[in-house]
Design brief:
The protein is built from 2 helices and 3 strands. By secondary structure, the protein is of the alpha/beta class.
């Protein structure tokens, strides 16, 4: 019976890019593939600080700072309920959780 089926969308690490996720979900809900009943996020949901061998590269440092700043802004919008998702989103954040 088709009416009992649940459409689940799985996505990889969001890593604090909540506005990007919101926009992608909005687009997918309206697409031929959608609509979805729920979105499950695997991997870090909130921004995680990472380090690697390119930490001395100024371009890499700037990109990381931009991602961190955008994530902080998105997380504030989420807490203020200004950022919404068009489908229920479930996540398990194995990282540091919501930054304070």
């Amino acid at each position: 019976n088709m009416s009992n089926r649940v459409k689940i969308l799985m996505v990889g690490p969001v890593n604090g890019q909540l506005s990007l996720l919101s926009n992608k979900l909005r687009t997918l809900q309206k697409s031929k593939a959608g609509p979805f009943d729920i979105c499950i996020c695997a991997g870090p949901f909130f921004h995680q600080t990472t380090t690697d061998n390119n930490d001395n590269d100024a371009v890499v440092k700037q990109e990381r700072q931009t991602i961190k700043d955008n994530a902080a802004s998105d997380e504030k919008l989420l807490l203020d309920k200004s950022l919404t998702f068009d489908v229920p989103v479930l996540f398990v954040d194995a990282g540091n959780g919501l930054p304070t």
